[in-house]
Give the backbone structure.
Amino acid sequence: MLVIGSDHAGYGMKLEIIKYLEGKQRPYLDVGGTAQSCDYPLIAVDACTKIITGECLKGILVCGTGIGMAIAANKVPGVRAAVGHDVYTVKLAREHNRINMLCLGARIIGREYAFELIEAFLNTEFELGRHRRRLDIITSIESKNWKTFKNNYDTVESPKDPEILKRR
Ligand code: RB5
């Protein structure tokens, strides 16, 4: 089972992807996201939960660029997410990095290209060998206690311009 989710920016592409998956008779679970403006990390965490509980093996998240979804998804231990921009990278992201979440940018790539990336994501296997060891290192990073480090969210510049704040 494949989990799929989007924010408002990715919603149109998510619908196209769902149609595509249905055409291929691939089972999927939509965790939501509509044309209504929403916060992409909330959708990402719902999709990632389906992966870490084992309900779904892989997932697809769509937002404007794919980047926000990937950042959020990679905070969830056990989830390895990458933004897909080309078939070669997506194949390597499966072979070497064993990604289980593909993040797509609806404002960046076209529909047909998204389908090609999805095929590469679904049909490429992990290579094991040295890559297994490297994934084990990533897993050990996840299990470190990072709580003593202050989140730098407050220190980043925040937009003051009301026009910027209005953007979805
Ligand atoms: C929404 O405007 C946009 O920020 C979001 O879809 C995504 O691209 C974030 O990374």
Notes: The CA atoms of residues 84 and 90 lie 6 Å apart.
